[in-house]
Amino acid sequence: MPVESLPVRSAPLHFRLLQQYLLLLKKYPILTKSVTSGILSALGNLLSQIVEASKKSKNGVTTSEIDAAGATRYAIYGLLVTGPVSHYFYQLMEAWMPSTDPYCIIKRLLLDRLIFAPGFLLLFYFVMNILEAKGWDDFEKKMRRSYWTALKMNWKVWTPFQFININFVPVQFRVLFANMIALFWYAYLASVRK
Which end of the chain has the smaller Cβ count within 10 Å, N or C? Predict the structure, then answer.
């Protein structure tokens, strides 16, 4: 008498997505981190637009449509800059400051907060200025008007998350962890740069 096999219950969608992400992360680490960064950066910009439109509508101001070009700029920045730069930064940090170093926790945090964060924020302003097809004068105005404010906010918001990220999150997941925080950070930057 032949035995009939019962259908295996398929894994829930979130487990299948996680499995697929882990597979892609292993096979194509930079591309996977770059695409993830692009998607989450665009979502952060869209979140900013939705929050801003909601605030305006509460004050009786009519809101315009979603700025798809703005979300596209953030997607391009995430894809071409955030993903690859963050990948290499975390890899180099791991090589330069291995966890066997007794002061690695503080060294990593200082490197990230005092060197990487100001430079990466400057790069953000510069690349966004190019993607917006604006001139040098606009770049200088935005830098003078909001860079220092954004950097101080970066230090306040990101420091506890980066402490956890660079010291306790496995290196292959650091870009994803930072991207999840950046979803809200980009919403803040999109509103502060206007």
Answer: N
